[in-house]
Fold these 2 entries.
Entry 1:
Amino acid sequence: MRVLGVDPGLTRCGVGVVEGVAGRPLTMIGVGVVRTPADADLGHRLVAIEQGIEEWLDEHRPEFVAVERVFSQHNVRTVMGTAQASAVALLCASRRGIPVALHTPSEVKAAVTGSGRADKAQVGAMVTRLLRLSAPPKPADAADALALAICHIWRAPAQNRLQRAVALHTAKAPKGRTA
Amino acid sequence: MRVLGVDPGLTRCGVGVVEGVAGRPLTMIGVGVVRTPADADLGHRLVAIEQGIEEWLDEHRPEFVAVERVFSQHNVRTVMGTAQASAVALLCASRRGIPVALHTPSEVKAAVTGSGRADKAQVGAMVTRLLRLSAPPKPADAADALALAICHIWRAPAQNRLQRAVALHTAKAPKGRTA
């Protein structure tokens, strides 16, 4: 199973591809950050994020995309940007019929460190160990994207297979309409 | 000047096209709502909104897109969906090099009714009068989309011309990069 994890953000959108199955050693296929300049206007930043994510999907052909679920209890301005960047990631994946799962930050932390309240350093250390890397991926957004992908591989493999079948089916018959 | 107004939302995304210039009678070119089913998954709802907005852009070829600026002091869950729907509208317009302006709800209300605290009925009544319609557009999201377009036409025509030149220029040279 190959998963693209996306830690959404307007300034730095972490992306990481992990391959493997639950219970076996995992392999990092790629990791990076899609950046957009803070002084660009919002529309152009979203276009740049779309282009960046499309490149990752083209190059790595993931079967699943895992995106961090955004909450609004954090800083108000950041959250709106994060929600908008996550919308672009969801759109890019769903347009291709790739199933998308949303995982909360605490689900991801719990999956890779055993604690939902682990800090950035702990997540980075475990990602490094689990993927047998020589050093923690930088910046933290990149490590978080890999952690999301790992979390997704480890959670409910049966559910993933079902979701993939549903996503492929519904991609052929979009449900929206214009009235 | 032809403007597409978008009142973003996941369940109902209001869209309205108005043509005219400040100081002259305005004309409604089209109005409607892009709907997505509440029980569909988020990714597919965003894809459906993208398809709906693309159809409006294809059919009406607006020179500007005006989107409601989202604030997060409202209901938390609604706001995240609104932010994500607005991201899709911004993305669709910016991808085509169409300049996008964000207007706050109070700017829009003040533009069409003279009061930033006007209610839905008042906005609907003024939209009906200003566009010489026989009845207020339904639902309110559709009327709000028209009010956004009117607000945009009336605010700073000179600024619109400048913004259009910049948007066309930057669309040719997107600023994002993948690292």
Note: The longest strand of chain B covers residues 27-35.
Entry 2:
Amino acid sequence: MLQPDSLFSDRMADVPKSFIREILKTTVSPEVISFAGGLPNRELFPIQEVRQAAVGVLDAYGAEALQYATSEGLYELRQWISQRYRSQQQLDIHPDNIIITTGSQQGLDLIAKILINEGDSLGLEEPGYLGAIQAFALYRPSFRPVPLHFDGLDVQALARSLDRFQPKLFYTVPSFQNPSGISHSNANRDAVAEVFRNSCTLLIEDNPYGEIRFSGEQLRSYAARLPDRTVLLGSFSKIFVPGFRIGWIAAPDRLMEKLTVAKQAADLHTNYFAQRVLLQYLQTSSIDEHITRIRDVYARQKQAMTAAIAREFPASVRCSNPDGGMFLWAVLPDGIPAREVFDAAIKENVAFVPGDPFYVDGRAASTMRLNFSCVDEDGIAEGIARLGTILRTRIGE
Amino acid sequence: MLQPDSLFSDRMADVPKSFIREILKTTVSPEVISFAGGLPNRELFPIQEVRQAAVGVLDAYGAEALQYATSEGLYELRQWISQRYRSQQQLDIHPDNIIITTGSQQGLDLIAKILINEGDSLGLEEPGYLGAIQAFALYRPSFRPVPLHFDGLDVQALARSLDRFQPKLFYTVPSFQNPSGISHSNANRDAVAEVFRNSCTLLIEDNPYGEIRFSGEQLRSYAARLPDRTVLLGSFSKIFVPGFRIGWIAAPDRLMEKLTVAKQAADLHTNYFAQRVLLQYLQTSSIDEHITRIRDVYARQKQAMTAAIAREFPASVRCSNPDGGMFLWAVLPDGIPAREVFDAAIKENVAFVPGDPFYVDGRAASTMRLNFSCVDEDGIAEGIARLGTILRTRIGE
């Protein structure tokens, strides 16, 4: 008979359970004001444009749009991404260096798959993106976290970590990060890039939120500073729709063959009809106008959240003030576990994600992720007021 | 600087290059009659029905159809698959035991990911499905091939292999296999199941072509014989459209949690809009009528191929006579490398896939895969006539 103990591969032993999934289960009730989600605001999805694009694709391409296709993805879509890199970030990325992936989540899986042996050092910022921690954990690296501060990576700690561990790759979301909303400042990027320049480490720059900027200075990509050693991950989930699962990976030449092999083994190719519909949308609608609408709504909601926090939270709770994206980060005075605050909050029908799962050591964190993309301004004011009451009571200010 | 030699993970060392891709590149010219492809016939795609379903989904569900969704997949679609198992194969598979995957290719990746450690024995039939060999190779198993004969697996060789290597899993496509078109007969399945019953091995039964039967007796699934140790892989690519990349994995309870974790890490979930469109199609159109159309066309084309082979091929070339699917297998007299035949054939503008990539040892095979789903009856007669001339010359009959 099958031996239960030996059934699974070793790589399944270290994968963190999705704590957020468990949290979200407790927050589905309609009375709960939830800052726990991580979804784009569905009110902004371009439903009619998707409808027109789907019909347009089937009328124009018919069976071709429904057949098997190349593993690298639709070439015109890769061209569009290449042109977008040029127009938005002055980056010179050839379409041949882009593979369409089934969400940027797949990009995380592919890059770890082709690069990471068990025990290899893998650097990442902390707090870090949970989806990346989960994807990477399957390949059993030794995680080498570097603290993320309100203006970016801890440069000294980064230099020490690269020097000591020589990680094969380092993962970062430098703009409007999930979970923190923090961006690396341009000055921080300069210093960070200088540290990487003297290392053997490949930098994975994940940028799902970069286009959702509503204030502050433009930030230059690490790929502009370190073109030969930066792998870019991108996504249409936050600027178009997430349900299509279309992202991409852009990498230096020497990685492309192995990435293509891994992509083909993973799912042959990304949904081709969806790629065609997306391209049709990009060619016939204005995604810039659409992004402007998203920015305006998220900007107002973020503004409502920071204003409410200023009124309601004790001064000892420090918060990020993001210039874009969907999240804001609150740091509680030392020793106050965010899980305790969560337990009190859920009794008052307000939810957030305690910081615990965003640290690879699974610590009892004193940090909170607050999502502002999916709650309207009145809900934000009310929810933050309830949280403020709980925090004032707990902290005693 | 980066060290090129140490750049990639060890798992990338053993992945076979897609030989078929290279072959297909040589056969894109319109003058070539190609039996080398592996595509469903695009003339049969239900374009108008997809169009109606896409519009219907957006009108009925709007933003919901475009948002992030659960990793396991759309529950009603999993219910449909569960009911289909019951109605078509008298199998009792609960929807909770089904995960929607990004094509059945992803199912191959997930099952190997959660089960296979480097060096673990993994059994498979030989010739075997190339996509599976590629997906599995990334996890560096020791492949333990078992010969596939015209009526199914070599039972003696299977018993010896299970006894000697105790493989963690064994992979098979028992109905209308790719590449051979061979099915395990019911008698063969009885004997094979008996061998597995006395082993610790999990059976992976991949069945993308099972519904495309145009003659012969119904074959009972291994899952009916070995419900506790069979993992089923399925696909809508051959009965609906491949471009949607929708497949599924159906597994015993004890595998579901790890499969779900691996699925979430791989791409969060499969394109949700496409799942909704497919479900809408299944609810508003008759897929049974559609499958009947596919069967009729493929049956005629297979008939044309077997008739032409009887006329044109030397008697010493033995061929399978599939009751379904898309492929037919030709076994040349010993010592004649199919690659030589391929080189001669391509000069005459006819193509097929030499058997080499379907064996894990990469041998110079004396076997040929002939696809009949994408060439019409006249093209089949002409292409087989050209191949017959080449074979008669080479074999000297």
Note: Chain B touches chain A through 77 residues (CB under 8 Å).
